[in-house]
Structures are given as C-alpha cells and as structure tokens.
Specification:
The structure is a homodimer.
Chain A: E1 8-13, H1 18-29, E2 32-40, H2 47-58, E3 63-67, H3 106-121, E4 125-127, H4 143-156, H5 158-161, E5 167-169, H6 177-187, H7 209-220
C-alpha cells in the first residue's frame, strides 16, 4: 500500500546505532515512506533511545517508541547486576561465541512488533540493520534466521495468507562495518547523532564490543567518527 | 533445566479463555513446572486478564502479566472504533475467512516473549492453547505456522544454536472444542474461572465468534458451561 505521495510504506527498526541509521537512509533512498519503530526495553541508559529518536527525526520520518518489559532479563545489556563484557574477544577477529550481551529472542520480539505494525498500516516492507560480519555473534543476526522468519510471516499472518506477504529487508547483513560506514556516508547518514556504546555515560566507553566494532569500522573506512568530535 | 523439585520448566501462555486453561493443566499433568505468561495488550476489557490470573493462581503457578502496546491496532479486538463482528458466519461451519478480530501478528509477538522468557529461565518448553479446528480462522493458529516458528527458534536463539532448542507444544491444535472440554474436565480445569467472550460486560454476549464456539463445545460435550451458572 502506498501513502498519499505514492511512496511505498516501510517499517524501519531504529536502535540509535549506526547500522540501523544506515538501514533507514537506505530505505529512504529506495523510495520507501519510512515509519520508524524504536524500543525502550530496559537498556542501561536512555542515550540509545534519544539517539534513535533524533536519527528518525533528522530523516523526517514518524517515530513510534514502544516500551516493552522483559522482567526475566537474561542479558547483561538489561540486567545491572551483570557486568558488560569488555575486550574479552581479541580485536579484529570474528567473534564466534554468543556473548553475555545477547538479549534472549530480542530481534524476534522486535520483528514481531514491526510485522504487526506493517500489517496494520498496509506496509509490505520491514527494514532492519542486522549484520552478520562485524557483529557480536548474536544468532538473530544471521541470514538463516531471517530466512526462517520469512516463513513465519508467510504462514502466520493475514498478509502472508492473502499472498500480500511482507518482506524483511536486511541490506547490511553481509557488509563489513567499513562498507556500512562508506555506504552510509554516501547516503548522508548523520552518524554524529548515533550511539553504539552498550554502556551509558557522557561518552562511549571504547572498550565494549560495540564500541570496538564501531572504531574498527571508522578506522578501516579512513574516517573520523563524528560522534567523538 | 529443572527446578528445585526436579520438574522440567515450561512457559505457558494463558489468555483467560478455556483453551489456554486446558493447555496449562495439560502441561502440569505432563510434569512441567509451569510459568504462566499473560498479556495485557489493550483488550476491550480486563475480565480476560483477571480470568487468566485466576486460572494461573488456581493451578498454583507463578504468573507474569506483561503490558504491551500495539498503538497501530488493526483489529476490532483492540480498537473500540471497530465493532466486534456478530454471527456473520453460519454456525457449525468451519470458518475460513480471517475475521476483523484478527490482531496483526499477535501470536507471533506472544510466542516471541514466551521464547525470551524460556531462554532466560532455562525452560525447554512453551505451551500455547492454539486450535485449528473450532477456531476463528486466524492464520497464527495453523499447524504450518507453528512448524515455521520452530525453525525461527532453531536459527534465531542461543538455545537453538547450542542445540538446546526450545519446543512449542500445541496440545489442542487438532482437537475439536468438544474434545478440548472433555480433556480439560478430566484434567480438572476450573472452567468456571475462564472467560471467552470478545466483549466485556457482566456476562458473555453469546453472539461473538468466541462465545458461539464455546457454547457449541459445551453443548456437544453434553455439559453445562459452569461460567454461565
């Protein structure tokens, strides 16, 4: 279904990090009218949510912030009693073990809400900035997960049954962080508004997995990280 | 993972209706230590949530009530501006069209949370009282949807990757309402505590799809519905 301007609608999951910001600008470039969906799921800090809101607003897109509760926690990302792991993995190496920052079924929950939203507004596309190259080893960032989720959409929704299926686009899935940053720079992504650090605080910790992957990306792209200026 | 008493843990989705109550008592009978999960998702009335809480308490199981927001609505079940359909479908006939009470991606969202909960507490089982025989024609109540969701668990969770996969049990999927009620009666399900009507009010409307399916089930089982006493 298209909006008043004839643009196709898409729901875009926006986290405040650089990947989802790039996915949003990619979707816009592809001609989608984007509806941003942001989750407040008990992250350790609100910086991430503010960053997500700011990125969506800069892109000129409506943004919905949903508060969800995961009282069972099960991840250091949302449980203040568990420390955020530091540089436990050697830098530069692809991380294989699933770290303690993995939030049980997080992307499945996020995609389910995005799917509900897309079905309700007649969007046929969902964008998510998942990445399986320079990533933390989360199972819900792998191509095979997205293929499986596609089957759930086809079998478990009205849109799927009525053959108006909704597609999950993962444009960054097989890109390195360097490639993502170069692509985003071409697309005009306001990286200065994004926030990647797993911890809160005034500035990124520089030690957590997410900070290290981001720093590596900017270094390899030969660029300065504008959020550190 | 087992609890202190050596019982295997399960997460059970409890809605307040008779199907999920039967699924809960079935899981208990199978020897699971059940953790009930109830959603407050903007249903038209709180009767359903109160019924779910009462059923879980009667079963002696811990219950978590999660409030989730679906601001895009897209269903007469959660949008007060849309009427609940009445007896639009001829009684006794299997309903094929997807009615307006379908909530976009609802069971996918519910299962995603149940999956997160199960992973966090080390449960290897999720029970849901979905039924594809005497049902309203929802796509997320069909066997093929549950098969597809199984693949998502295998590919998108830590449990799946580590080959400790979590299984979704749908013990009522292929039973008629009559068979469900007879099974539940044997299991001691307190049907007097359950609530099926899509509308609120002091007593069930008797007209909505859910009321009609329930009434048909009790009639065919040759029993009086204890909630109408």
């Amino acid at each position: 279904m298209s909006n008043a301007a004839g643009l196709r609608k898409a729901v875009v999951l926006v986290s405040g990090g650089l990947d989802s910001a790039t996915a949003l600008y990619f979707a816009k470039k592809k001609g989608f009218s984007c509806h941003c969906l942001v989750f407040d799921y008990g992250q350790r800090h609100v910086r991430e949510i503010n960053a997500a809101r700011n990125v969506a607003r800069r892109a000129g897109c409506p943004v919905t912030i949903l508060k969800i509760s995961l009282p069972w926690k099960g991840s250091s990302l949302i449980d203040r009693r568990r420390p955020i792991p530091g540089a436990a993995q050697p830098q530069g190496r692809v991380v294989r073990a699933i770290p303690d920052t993995y939030v049980p079924a997080r992307n499945i929950i996020f995609l389910s809400f995005a799917l509900s939203y897309a079905e309700a507004i007649g969007a046929r596309a969902i964008f998510i900035g998942a990445n399986s190259i320079d990533y933390s080893g989360y199972p819900d960032c792998r191509p095979r997960f997205y293929r499986a989720f596609g089957a759930v959409i086809a079998q478990g929704t009205r849109a799927g049954v009525e053959k108006k299926s909704i597609k999950v686009y993962t444009p960054l899935l097989e890109l390195t962080k360097e490639q993502i940053i170069k692509l985003g720079t071409l697309l005009g992504v306001p990286y200065e508004l994004t926030w990647s650090c797993y911890k809160g605080g005034g500035k990124p910790c520089g030690v957590c997995d997410s900070c290290r992957l981001r720093a590596k990306g900017f270094r390899q792209a030969g660029m300065e990280d504008p959020s550190l200026r």
